[in-house]
Amino acid sequence: MNKIKHPSKTLTVQEEGSGQRLDNYLSRVTKRQLPRSRIHHMIRSGEVRVNQGRCSASTKLTAGDRVRIPPFFAKEQQKHNPHPAIVAQFFKDIIYEDNSLLAINKPSGLACHGGSGISLGLIEHLRILRPQQKFLELAHRLDRDTSGIVLIAKKKSTLIALHTLFRDHEIDKRYLAIIEGKFRNSYQRINLPLSTKIHNNEKKAFIDKINGKESITEVFLLLRGNDYSLIEAHPLSGRTHQIRIHLSTIGHPILGDKKYNPTLTTKKLLLHAHRISFLHPLTNQTITLSSPIPKKFIMCAKKNHLKMFTNIDHRALLSTQQLVDMIESVRQ
């Protein structure tokens, strides 16, 4: 496949780029010809400069900033066809939509965006399936193997507003997870500072009590079995892999977690972003969205005899009907 050389250039950030993360800005101005891994490498190595200074991928740009982009080679863009299974499921997975945003139930195994050997992620599928939509951007991300609700902005103003809500911790996110062992407490607050490192080209979190950032996760026990427990996790901060490393550190790793669970009793990561609540950026009304419990949870429950679970704690914000349905399906 032919490669095209793009010369270095310095761009002035316009108003529509104000408030955008540097990595997202670079992806947009290079017309998504570069994988995320390459963009992040260019930033880390100092090849990319903002106002002649070094920067990070999460640097927020403002109108008037000068961004230097080094020379790069990019493959001629191919026309990608969305996976047929994703196309068939696409409209079923949208759980909310209005003129400014949409929420979609991302399946496990689908990355939020392409890069690092992944040609099409969730956002690329959306753009291909909705060519008439001029603006579609991820407001946040889930790990590739985590399923659940992802918010997509359909307007630049909505994207900026959602980023502000996430930054100020004004978006309430709840996750379901099946973890190893008997979780003894009905409620536990985990406060362990985290840092990240790159190992074998993969980002990994670790406990860092000296230089780590404050990271807090609330854990509610929903169901307890002999060998496994179902919990709801409420992250009060938004660190990389926060829930996964916190649960692993206290001795209750998530089933199927290839990074933080050495036993790996199942191939699927049993972590699901099942509920999100926030003030709508335009209407200022509270929106609470929930997504169905994935079949993989039900299948794992049956396989691991979770019908033995007891001690349901209704203080956790789990849909009562979802919980009843899950328990009934396990008992069948």
Shape: globular
The domain tally reads 3
CATH architecture of the largest domain: 2-Layer Sandwich
The main β sheet shows up as: 10 strands, mixed
Global structural class:
alpha+beta
- How much β-strand is present in the residues? 25-35%
User: Helix count, per DSSP?
Assistant: 8
Q: Assembly type of the shown chains?
A: single chain
Rg (CA only): 21 Å
Helix content: 10-25%
CATH class label of the largest domain: Alpha Beta
Low-confidence stretches: 307-318, 327-332
- CA-to-CA gap between the ends? 54 Å
Q: Average pLDDT, to the nearest integer?
A: 82
CATH topology of the largest domain: Pseudouridine synthase
Helix-strand pattern: EEHHEEEHEEHEEHEEEEEEHEEHH
CATH superfamily of the largest domain: Pseudouridine synthase
User: How many strand elements?
Assistant: 17
Q: Descriptors for this entry?
A:
S4_RNA-bd, Structural Genomics Hypothetical 15.5 Kd Protein In mrcA-pckA Intergenic Region, Chain A, RluA_PseudoU_synthase, 10-stranded mixed sheet, single chain, Pseudouridine synthase, 3 domains, 8 helices, alpha+beta, globular, EC 5.4.99.-, rRNA processing
Can you describe what's shown?
This protein is of the alpha+beta class. It has three domains: 3-75, RNA-binding S4 domain (Structural Genomics Hypothetical 15.5 Kd Protein In mrcA-pckA Intergenic Region, Chain A), CATH 3.10.290; 84-161, 2-Layer Sandwich (Pseudouridine synthase), CATH 3.30.2350.10; 174-331, Pseudouridine synthase. It is built from eight helices and 17 strands. The strands form four sheets. Strands 6, 7, 8, 9, 10, 11, 14, 15, 16 and 17 form a ten-stranded mixed beta sheet that branches. A three-stranded antiparallel beta sheet has the order 2-4-3, with no helix packed on it. A hairpin with a 2-residue loop joins strand 12 and strand 13 (202-207). Helix 7 packs across helix 8 (320-331). It is globular. Residues 307-318 and 327-332 have low confidence and may be disordered.
